Amino acid sequence: MKAIASATVTTDGPNYRQAIKTGRHELVADEPEAAGGQNAGAAPYGYILAGLGACTTMTLQMYAQRKGWDLGTVSVRLKLSSDDAGHAHIHRKLKADGSLDDAQWDKLLEIAAKTPVTKTLAGGSTITSERVD
User: Fold this and answer.
1) Range(s) of the domain holding residue 63
2) I need a labelling partner for 99 at 20 to 30 A (CA). Which of 12, 70, 78, 130 fits?
3) What gap in Å lies between CA 60 and CA 108, rounded to an integer?
4) CATH number of the domain residue 96 falls in
5) Looking at the structure, do residues 36 and 94 belong to the same domain, yes or no?
6) Residue 34: DSSP 8-state
7) Nearest by Cα to 72 from 108, 30, 116
8) Is 82 domain-assigned?
9) pLDDT digits (tens, 9 = 90+) for 26-84
10) 102-112 and 44-67 helices cross at what angle (nearest 10)?
């Protein structure tokens, strides 16, 4: 298998604070105070949405640049919800301040549905675990 990304997460402080290392970057995760954390960093679902949002905006930037489109600044707001059966639903709201027509927006929405992280989340992933010493 080809490696795409890696991260190490280690407990780091009171309650649920976690130190995250991915590549050369260090992040902090935590639970909100209402869930017993210190709110020292984003909660795990926040990081999932952030990764999906970053992949979406980056992919749209790349696509628009190749097409020579004036995308301007692009942003995406994401919301994760759960239905009564417990199935997760993520809704994205995309915005760009460039001059795009309806046909270009239709294509960008089509591209957003095909980003790498979108495909990973929508298709599901096999997750395995093992103990190491």
Assistant:
1) 43-125
2) 78
3) 7
4) 3.30.300.20
5) no
6) G
7) 108
8) yes
9) 999 999 999 999 999 999 999 999 999 999 999 999 999 999 999 999 999 999 999 99
10) 130
